[in-house]
Amino acid sequence: MKRIKIMGLALVAIMAIGVVLAGSASASTKITMKDPLGGLASGATIAAHSVNLVTVTSAGTLECENSLLTGTLSTSGVNESTIKANSSSDEENGTFLGIPGACKTSIGAPVEIVTSKFPWLLEFKASGSAGTNEVKSEVSKGKVTFTSEFLVPELGEKNKCEFEAGKIISSFNAGSPGSPVPLEFTTTNQLFKLNKTYPNTAAICPKEGHLSGTWTVSDSNGGITVE
Question: Is the bond leading into 182 cis (omega within 30 degrees of zero)?
Fold first, then answer.
Protein backbone atom coordinates (compact mmCIF):
# COMPACT_ATOMS: atom_id res chain seq x y z
CA MET A 1 0.00 0.00 0.00
CA LYS A 2 2.81 2.43 0.88
CA ARG A 3 4.48 1.64 -2.40
CA ILE A 4 1.30 2.49 -4.31
CA LYS A 5 0.97 5.78 -2.41
CA ILE A 6 4.61 6.69 -3.07
CA MET A 7 4.20 5.92 -6.78
CA GLY A 8 1.05 8.03 -6.83
CA LEU A 9 2.82 10.96 -5.23
CA ALA A 10 5.71 10.59 -7.66
CA LEU A 11 3.29 10.65 -10.58
CA VAL A 12 1.62 13.81 -9.24
CA ALA A 13 5.03 15.44 -8.86
CA ILE A 14 6.04 14.52 -12.42
CA MET A 15 2.76 15.90 -13.79
CA ALA A 16 3.25 19.13 -11.83
CA ILE A 17 6.76 19.54 -13.22
CA GLY A 18 5.39 18.92 -16.71
CA VAL A 19 2.80 21.66 -16.27
CA VAL A 20 5.47 24.10 -15.07
CA LEU A 21 7.75 23.28 -18.00
CA ALA A 22 4.90 23.54 -20.50
CA GLY A 23 3.91 26.89 -19.04
CA SER A 24 7.49 28.12 -19.26
CA ALA A 25 7.83 27.02 -22.87
CA SER A 26 4.68 28.85 -23.95
CA ALA A 27 5.16 31.94 -21.77
CA SER A 28 5.67 35.17 -23.65
CA THR A 29 9.02 36.93 -23.58
CA LYS A 30 9.30 40.65 -23.04
CA ILE A 31 10.75 42.31 -26.12
CA THR A 32 12.20 45.70 -26.99
CA MET A 33 12.24 47.59 -30.29
CA LYS A 34 15.04 50.07 -30.93
CA ASP A 35 16.05 52.45 -33.69
CA PRO A 36 19.55 54.02 -33.95
CA LEU A 37 18.61 56.54 -31.23
CA GLY A 38 17.31 54.01 -28.67
CA GLY A 39 14.14 52.27 -27.49
CA LEU A 40 10.86 53.25 -29.13
CA ALA A 41 8.22 55.05 -27.09
CA SER A 42 4.45 55.00 -27.37
CA GLY A 43 3.44 57.22 -30.28
CA ALA A 44 6.44 56.32 -32.43
CA THR A 45 5.67 55.70 -36.11
CA ILE A 46 7.01 52.55 -37.72
CA ALA A 47 6.95 51.44 -41.35
CA ALA A 48 7.05 47.87 -42.65
CA HIS A 49 8.31 47.71 -46.24
CA SER A 50 8.10 44.75 -48.61
CA VAL A 51 9.60 44.35 -52.08
CA ASN A 52 8.36 40.82 -52.75
CA LEU A 53 4.70 40.63 -51.84
CA VAL A 54 3.00 37.89 -53.89
CA THR A 55 -0.57 36.59 -53.86
CA VAL A 56 -1.02 33.21 -55.56
CA THR A 57 -4.46 32.22 -56.86
CA SER A 58 -5.85 29.59 -59.19
CA ALA A 59 -6.25 32.33 -61.80
CA GLY A 60 -2.63 33.52 -61.55
CA THR A 61 -0.41 35.63 -59.30
CA LEU A 62 -0.32 39.26 -58.17
CA GLU A 63 3.18 40.65 -57.52
CA CYS A 64 3.81 44.01 -55.83
CA GLU A 65 7.38 45.30 -55.74
CA ASN A 66 6.88 48.11 -53.24
CA SER A 67 4.36 47.67 -50.40
CA LEU A 68 4.31 49.88 -47.30
CA LEU A 69 2.41 49.27 -44.06
CA THR A 70 2.72 52.09 -41.51
CA GLY A 71 1.67 52.11 -37.86
CA THR A 72 1.81 54.17 -34.67
CA LEU A 73 2.80 52.43 -31.43
CA SER A 74 -0.06 52.41 -28.92
CA THR A 75 2.17 50.80 -26.27
CA SER A 76 5.74 51.35 -25.23
CA GLY A 77 8.26 49.57 -27.44
CA VAL A 78 10.53 48.78 -24.48
CA ASN A 79 10.37 45.61 -22.37
CA GLU A 80 6.80 44.67 -23.29
CA SER A 81 5.15 41.25 -23.57
CA THR A 82 3.12 42.57 -26.51
CA ILE A 83 4.02 45.61 -28.57
CA LYS A 84 1.01 47.09 -30.35
CA ALA A 85 0.63 49.57 -33.19
CA ASN A 86 -2.36 50.99 -35.05
CA SER A 87 -2.32 51.38 -38.81
CA SER A 88 -4.55 53.60 -40.91
CA SER A 89 -3.03 52.84 -44.31
CA ASP A 90 -1.39 50.12 -46.35
CA GLU A 91 0.00 51.19 -49.72
CA GLU A 92 0.79 48.96 -52.68
CA ASN A 93 3.12 50.88 -54.98
CA GLY A 94 5.29 50.06 -57.93
CA THR A 95 5.38 50.52 -61.66
CA PHE A 96 4.20 47.97 -64.17
CA LEU A 97 3.84 48.58 -67.90
CA GLY A 98 4.70 52.21 -67.19
CA ILE A 99 1.71 52.64 -64.87
CA PRO A 100 2.68 54.21 -61.50
CA GLY A 101 1.18 52.35 -58.52
CA ALA A 102 0.39 49.23 -60.53
CA CYS A 103 1.40 45.70 -59.57
CA LYS A 104 2.21 42.85 -61.93
CA THR A 105 -0.04 39.90 -62.75
CA SER A 106 0.84 36.62 -64.38
CA ILE A 107 -1.76 37.27 -67.11
CA GLY A 108 0.20 40.31 -68.20
CA ALA A 109 -2.34 42.90 -67.07
CA PRO A 110 -1.61 45.61 -64.48
CA VAL A 111 -3.50 45.46 -61.18
CA GLU A 112 -4.21 48.10 -58.57
CA ILE A 113 -4.46 46.89 -54.96
CA VAL A 114 -6.66 48.86 -52.53
CA THR A 115 -6.72 47.92 -48.83
CA SER A 116 -9.62 48.70 -46.45
CA LYS A 117 -11.35 48.01 -43.10
CA PHE A 118 -9.01 50.35 -41.20
CA PRO A 119 -7.78 50.88 -38.54
CA TRP A 120 -5.67 47.72 -38.39
CA LEU A 121 -4.03 46.48 -35.20
CA LEU A 122 -0.44 45.19 -35.37
CA GLU A 123 0.76 43.01 -32.47
CA PHE A 124 4.31 41.77 -31.92
CA LYS A 125 4.84 38.93 -29.42
CA ALA A 126 7.74 36.59 -28.71
CA SER A 127 8.44 33.32 -26.94
CA GLY A 128 12.17 32.93 -26.64
CA SER A 129 13.85 33.91 -29.90
CA ALA A 130 10.75 33.16 -31.99
CA GLY A 131 8.35 36.00 -32.64
CA THR A 132 4.85 36.30 -34.09
CA ASN A 133 3.26 39.31 -35.74
CA GLU A 134 -0.49 39.53 -36.18
CA VAL A 135 -2.42 42.11 -38.20
CA LYS A 136 -6.15 42.41 -37.51
CA SER A 137 -8.88 44.87 -38.44
CA GLU A 138 -10.31 46.84 -35.51
CA VAL A 139 -13.59 47.48 -37.30
CA SER A 140 -16.49 45.66 -35.63
CA LYS A 141 -16.61 42.20 -37.23
CA GLY A 142 -14.14 43.52 -39.77
CA LYS A 143 -11.48 41.57 -41.63
CA VAL A 144 -8.18 42.54 -43.19
CA THR A 145 -9.32 43.29 -46.72
CA PHE A 146 -7.82 44.11 -50.09
CA THR A 147 -9.45 44.69 -53.44
CA SER A 148 -7.67 44.02 -56.71
CA GLU A 149 -8.80 45.96 -59.76
CA PHE A 150 -7.31 44.84 -63.05
CA LEU A 151 -7.80 45.12 -66.78
CA VAL A 152 -8.32 42.02 -68.92
CA PRO A 153 -6.89 43.01 -72.33
CA GLU A 154 -9.06 40.52 -74.25
CA LEU A 155 -12.25 41.91 -72.72
CA GLY A 156 -11.19 45.55 -72.54
CA GLU A 157 -12.81 46.00 -69.12
CA LYS A 158 -11.86 46.33 -65.47
CA ASN A 159 -12.59 43.57 -62.99
CA LYS A 160 -12.66 43.78 -59.19
CA CYS A 161 -12.03 41.00 -56.67
CA GLU A 162 -12.25 41.61 -52.90
CA PHE A 163 -10.34 39.23 -50.63
CA GLU A 164 -10.54 38.93 -46.82
CA ALA A 165 -8.74 37.29 -43.90
CA GLY A 166 -9.60 37.31 -40.20
CA LYS A 167 -5.97 38.24 -39.55
CA ILE A 168 -2.54 38.02 -41.12
CA ILE A 169 -0.03 35.93 -39.16
CA SER A 170 3.71 36.36 -39.74
CA SER A 171 6.88 35.24 -37.97
CA PHE A 172 10.10 37.02 -37.02
CA ASN A 173 13.41 36.40 -35.25
CA ALA A 174 13.10 38.11 -31.86
CA GLY A 175 16.81 38.01 -30.95
CA SER A 176 17.60 38.03 -27.23
CA PRO A 177 18.43 40.61 -24.53
CA GLY A 178 21.72 42.25 -25.46
CA SER A 179 21.74 40.57 -28.88
CA PRO A 180 19.38 42.58 -31.11
CA VAL A 181 18.53 41.55 -34.67
CA PRO A 182 16.93 43.56 -37.50
CA LEU A 183 13.14 43.44 -37.24
CA GLU A 184 11.87 41.57 -40.29
CA PHE A 185 8.68 39.52 -40.37
CA THR A 186 7.71 36.97 -42.99
CA THR A 187 4.21 36.12 -44.18
CA THR A 188 3.91 32.62 -45.64
CA ASN A 189 0.88 31.42 -47.61
CA GLN A 190 -1.62 33.49 -45.63
CA LEU A 191 -5.08 32.47 -46.84
CA PHE A 192 -7.42 35.18 -48.15
CA LYS A 193 -10.93 34.22 -49.28
CA LEU A 194 -13.03 35.94 -51.91
CA ASN A 195 -15.87 38.07 -50.53
CA LYS A 196 -18.71 36.78 -52.69
CA THR A 197 -21.10 39.43 -51.34
CA TYR A 198 -18.93 42.30 -52.62
CA PRO A 199 -21.27 44.11 -55.07
CA ASN A 200 -18.68 44.49 -57.85
CA THR A 201 -17.14 41.01 -57.74
CA ALA A 202 -16.22 39.84 -61.21
CA ALA A 203 -17.26 36.39 -62.39
CA ILE A 204 -13.64 35.47 -63.15
CA CYS A 205 -12.41 36.10 -59.58
CA PRO A 206 -10.74 33.06 -57.94
CA LYS A 207 -12.24 31.74 -54.70
CA GLU A 208 -9.09 32.32 -52.65
CA GLY A 209 -5.49 33.48 -52.70
CA HIS A 210 -2.35 32.90 -50.62
CA LEU A 211 -0.20 35.88 -49.61
CA SER A 212 3.56 35.64 -49.01
CA GLY A 213 6.31 38.19 -48.53
CA THR A 214 8.95 39.63 -46.21
CA TRP A 215 8.63 42.96 -44.40
CA THR A 216 11.54 45.07 -43.10
CA VAL A 217 10.66 47.53 -40.31
CA SER A 218 12.15 51.00 -39.87
CA ASP A 219 11.29 54.52 -38.73
CA SER A 220 12.49 58.03 -39.60
CA ASN A 221 15.78 57.38 -37.78
CA GLY A 222 16.65 54.18 -39.65
CA GLY A 223 16.27 50.43 -39.29
CA ILE A 224 14.56 48.96 -36.21
CA THR A 225 16.00 46.07 -34.22
CA VAL A 226 14.31 43.76 -31.72
CA GLU A 227 15.66 41.91 -28.71
Answer: no
